[in-house]
Amino acid sequence: MTTYKIDLKDEILRINFGEPAQNDQIVRDAAARLEEMVESGELTGGQLLKINGPVSVPVAFVLAHKLAHIYGAIACFDPKLGKYVISITHDPAYKLGDLID
Fold first, then answer.
1. Closest Cα partner for 88 from 53, 37, 50?
2. Domains and CATH numbers, the chain
3. What radius of gyration do the chain's Cα atoms show?
4. What is the C-alpha separation between 31 and 59, in angstroms, rounded?
5. What pLDDT is recorded for position 1?
6. pLDDT tens figures, 24-70
7. Do the Cβ atoms of 68 and 51 come closer than 8 Å?
């Protein structure tokens, strides 16, 4: 069992907590899962990655660090807005704070 679940479905990185644990273990599990996904070719990088699901601040830092190197822009879902917010961008097609569906 894992303490953090990460799956790519319909071009959206779906994330969620798994077995109860403290953040020290959760960040290790999240980093290991991302590495597994990259090594297997499941996460290949690209122009934009959308992320949807609950995350702690330490896990958010792990996701940002690992994914910002392989994607031009990263957007996180904001349930209050019902849209994704561009949170990291190196791609001129996306501006920080842009809202996308």
1. 50
2. 4-100 (3.30.750)
3. 13
4. 8
5. 64
6. 999 999 999 999 999 999 999 999 999 999 999 999 999 999 999 99
7. no
